Amino acid sequence: MSENVEAGLVISILNMQSKIQKRVGAALSVHGIGLSEYLVLNQLYIAANQKMRRSDLAEKVGLSPSGVTRLLNPMQKIGLIEKEDNPRDARVSLVVLSKAGKRITEEAKVSFEYDSSALFESLDKEGLSTLSELLKVLTR
């Protein structure tokens, strides 16, 4: 029996995800972080005032609120992030990128970009552009 095109595509995407996690994860480990931590640090790095509500951060990195909490606790212990009370709502705390977190993010970004480029070296500019546009359509 032959597989339908969509099922084969899902398998290809999962294989690519695995390749990304292995390759980029290995590059980020040099900086003492994994891919999930990098995604959190990067979201904070690009956020206004380098701070976000925990729930917004969870949504941006594709984790549940409890999942992001489990990820953030060790990051806070090693000084990559800090928690800050929200002056407008005491029930909501903010996650803030620390100075050390900013430095690690900037250093890790170089490795992340290098290995991201290497993953797609078999595609020319047009192929990259087409793939990028297709993924944007699928992730809307």
Description:
The chain is mainly alpha-helical and 140 residues long. The protein has a single domain (9-138), classed as Winged helix-like DNA-binding domain superfamily/Winged helix DNA-binding domain (Arc Repressor Mutant, subunit A, Orthogonal Bundle), CATH 1.10.10.10. 66% of the residues lie in helices and 9% in strands. It is built from 6 helices and 3 strands, in the order H-H-E-H-H-E-E-H-H. It has a 3-stranded antiparallel sheet. Helix 1 (5-29) crosses helix 5, helix 2 (35-46) crosses helix 3 and helix 3 packs across helix 4. The protein starts with a helix and ends with a helix. The mean pLDDT is 92.
Helix-strand category: mainly alpha
Q: What is the CATH first-level class name?
A: Mainly Alpha
Percent of residues in β-strands: 5-15%
Mean pLDDT: 92
What is the name of the CATH architecture? Answer: Orthogonal Bundle
How far apart lie the N and C ends? Answer: 32 Å
Give helix % range: 55-70%
If you consult CATH, what is the topology?
Answer: Arc Repressor Mutant, subunit A
Order of strands in the sheet with the most strands? 1-3-2
Unreliable spans are none
